[in-house]
Specification:
about 25% strand, alpha+beta, 7 helices, about 210 residues, two-stranded antiparallel sheet
Length: about 210
Amino acid sequence: MNFLTRKARTAAAMALLWAATAVAAAPLPSTTSVAGTKLSLNGEGTRYKAIFQVYDLGLYLPKPARTSAELLRIDGPMKLAFVAKRDLPGTDLGVAFMKGLAANNEKALVSKHLTSTNRLIEVFSGRAKLVEDDTFAMEYLPGKGTQFYIAGEPQGAPIGDLEFFRMVLNIWVGPSPADFRLKEKLLSGNGAAPASPEPQQQPKAIY
């Protein structure tokens, strides 16, 4: 078997594997309620690592946002809702979120919110792993902070402030997001076509 034949077969096998794993994200509820406020699903998508699904993610907002700038101006309740698509080690997930914060926020800002950032890592590192179809969420509660949930159960008291939650949002909508395609879907604004592309950098980490 010559080199070109082996290369063609490898490419075909990878294409078949992609077809088997590229399943559309399971639909999330179109609305939810946070702090007594009805929120609508602004966008949803699937986070991929290479060709493998990692988690589904939905962004719930009190009003549509089609750019990062619009999203980061919102100061009401917000929610990020996740569904694991494979086993996710808790420590890996926590560290990955930390890397995402560092890649998309000023160093001084990350240092300012170090206590809240460490708590984010602790919430997920405290679990051996999340398994397929496990849910987790992050909600911003005005005047209280960010509330973390795993399998619908609150993980301690809310932490941080609006600035911290905006930092968390930047993991997925910042200049170096976890997944550019996922960023576009999260900012679809309730199904509307995304706005003009924003300046972006290559991602620095997997999260």
